[in-house]
Amino acid sequence: MSLCLAAGALVVALGSGEITLSWRHSVQKTLWQEVWRDTPEGLRLAEARIEGSGAGMDPPEGARLVDGFWRWRPDLPALPQVVMRRSGATADWEVCIAGACRPMGDYLPGDADPVTLRRCG
Fold it and tell me: Between vectors from CA 23 to CA 17 and to CA 27, what angle results, nearest 5°?
């Protein structure tokens, strides 16, 4: 199974069934990361992590501080897709595959909005 990024008719295969999406909060400048996995049920949020708290980004009860990040496993149902917006007011999303991170603009044009993470095929 593999994940793709899609914007309009443009679809880019990422070649992996697990990616980490990363971005900085526009006010707090706090790094937020989410690990997404393609599963038979759909896309699952395997882990969420943030560097700190504030501006509505407080870690939930049960989160653990590990290597400078509050980490937890959200108890959410699988999704058919994840829709991301790119306002241009903040730095672009980062897409990390097997620890190698690249800005979303390396995959899709900078004005591509919205972008959908979904299963390829």
Answer: 160
Whole-prediction pTM: 0.89
Residue 48: how many CB atoms within 10 A of its CB? 19
Q: pLDDT tens digit string along 93-118?
A: 999 999 999 999 999 998 999 999 99
**Reduced to 3 DSSP states, what percent helix, strand and coil does the chain have, rounded to the nearest 5?**
0, 50, 50
| Dist CA 93 CA 104 (whole Å) | 5
Q: C-alpha distances in angstroms, 94 versus 52, 67, 75? A: 18, 20, 24
Per-residue tokens: 45: 């949020």
